[in-house]
Amino acid sequence: SKKANPAAVMSSPPHLILTQDELKKIAAYKAVEFVESGMVLGLGTGTTAKHAIDRIGELLRQGKLANIIGIPTSTQTHEQASSLGIPLSDLDTHPVLDLAIDGADEVDPDMNLVKGRGGSLLREKMIEGCCKKFVVIVDESKLVAYVGGSGLAMPVEIVPFCWKFTAQKLQSLFEESGCVAKLRVSAENGEPYVTDNGNFIIDLYFKKDIGDLRAAGDAMLRLAGVVEHGMFIDMATTLIVAGEFGVTVRNK
Ligand code: 5RP
């Protein structure tokens, strides 16, 4: 049998295997290249967006960026950004944003997203819907063939009042897709997870494609207890994906 030549093995470049968090950081840093001084910026929520916010804070400290105003999409992001000295505002004062940067839980081939596994989908949708440019940053594990295709949760924010009733209605809506609706509970105390807006989250799990996304979204919003769903349809303008073979930037 053929033995490996140790000299050849030693001289070949080491194969770098990056962790998921390192890939997230690469995507985030790439997105921050779109940020210019004077911009009003939507600041996303989650482990990927966190890297982008850290980077913006660093560039401000180094004087490479100036006069940035951040609009945070959660209390968690508000805390991070203010601890980094990023000046903050809100949609009441700045209803039009130049750019938003945020992660996603799923991205389909048309750049439709599932968001909200971090629980901030309502504020994210309000803020990212007001941006001239919305840059989505993901590692390649977030790419799916269709929305719901990861088999993981599609979050829906609902009012706490009679949540079981609303969860049941949501599940029935997608019966044909084998939908299972579950109340999100906090890992810390097993109590219902409460959003920044005082609401609950129902996580929907699908066995099959739900088909027309707009029709599905509209049907959910017609249920009186539903506040917002986690599908971000046709909102992303730029997608940055970091993977084993590099980083790609795609514009819509
Ligand atoms: C929070 C979100 C996040 O963007 C999404 O959950 C991705 O999170 P992460 O970057 O931690 O993978 O929608 O509501």
Entry keywords:
single chain; 252 residues; alpha/beta; four-stranded antiparallel sheet; 7 helices; disordered N terminus; binds ribulose-5-phosphate
What does this structure look like?
The chain has 252 residues and is α/β, with parallel strands linked by helices. It is built from seven helices and 13 strands. It has a six-stranded mixed beta sheet. Strands 8-9-7-10 form a four-stranded antiparallel beta sheet, with helices on one face. The chain has a three-stranded antiparallel beta sheet with strand order 4-5-11, with no helix packed on it. Strand 4 (106-107) and strand 5 (113-114) form a beta hairpin. The model is unreliable at 1-13 (pLDDT under 50). Bound molecules: ribulose-5-phosphate (5RP).
In short:
The chain has 7 helices and 13 strands. It is α/β, with parallel strands linked by helices and 252 residues long.
Distance between the termini: 52 Å
- Which range does the strand content fall in? 15-25%
Uncertain spans: 1-13
Spatially, the strands of the biggest sheet line up as 2-1-3-6-12-13
Profile the largest sheet.
6 strands, mixed
Please report the number of helical segments.
7
Radius of gyration: 20 Å
Output the structural class: alpha/beta
State the helical fraction.
Answer: 25-40%
Q: Which geometry do the CA atoms define? A: globular
Ligands bound to this protein structure: ribulose-5-phosphate
Topology:
Layout: H1 6-11, H2 20-32, E1 40-43, H3 47-61, E2 69-72, H4 75-83, E3 97-102, E4 106-107, E5 113-114, H5 121-128, E6 131-139, E7 154-158, H6 163-173, E8 180-183, E9 200-205, H7 213-221, E10 226-229, E11 231-232, E12 238-243, E13 246-251
Parallel strand pairs: 1-2, 1-3, 3-6, 6-12
Antiparallel strand pairs: 4-5, 5-11, 7-9, 7-10, 8-9, 12-13
Helix pairs in contact: 2-3
This protein binds ribulose-5-phosphate.
Ribulose-5-phosphate is lined by residues 44-49, 102-105, 115-121, 124.
